[in-house]
């Protein structure tokens, strides 16, 4: 997770916005227009279309992998033109977290 959302170059000058939760233990939020994180700490899968605040494109999840050249070693997330993306974090996944940000866009 070389360039995570905790990196000052990603989070500095941003606020937390577009909060979403399921009323229990699934949450998602943006860091301005620079990053998006989702956490699933429930006993069931998270499968939602959520606002990411990012530009359209395909992004590399920095929790499950890293951007290497023009590809991703982990999960990818496709952000639509309206900034939404289908997010899936199953209970079988080791971390239960997904994080993407502007510096890990692999395709426009």
TrEMBL record:
<dbReference type="GO" id="GO:0004556">
    <property type="term" value="F:alpha-amylase activity"/>
</dbReference>
<dbReference type="GO" id="GO:0005975">
    <property type="term" value="P:carbohydrate metabolic process"/>
</dbReference>
<keyword id="KW-0378">Hydrolase</keyword>
<keyword id="KW-0479">Metal-binding</keyword>
<keyword id="KW-0119">Carbohydrate metabolism</keyword>
<dbReference type="InterPro" id="IPR031319">
    <property type="entry name" value="A-amylase_C"/>
</dbReference>
<protein>
    <recommendedName>
        <fullName>alpha-amylase</fullName>
        <ecNumber>3.2.1.1</ecNumber>
    </recommendedName>
</protein>
<keyword id="KW-0732">Signal</keyword>
<comment type="subunit">
    <text>Monomer.</text>
</comment>
<comment type="similarity">
    <text>Belongs to the glycosyl hydrolase 13 family.</text>
</comment>
<dbReference type="InterPro" id="IPR006048">
    <property type="entry name" value="A-amylase/branching_C"/>
</dbReference>
<keyword id="KW-0868">Chloride</keyword>
<feature type="domain" description="Alpha-amylase C-terminal">
    <location>
        <begin position="17"/>
        <end position="105"/>
    </location>
</feature>
<dbReference type="InterPro" id="IPR013780">
    <property type="entry name" value="Glyco_hydro_b"/>
</dbReference>
<keyword id="KW-1015">Disulfide bond</keyword>
<keyword id="KW-0326">Glycosidase</keyword>
<dbReference type="GO" id="GO:0046872">
    <property type="term" value="F:metal ion binding"/>
</dbReference>
<dbReference type="Pfam" id="PF02806">
    <property type="entry name" value="Alpha-amylase_C"/>
</dbReference>
<keyword id="KW-0106">Calcium</keyword>
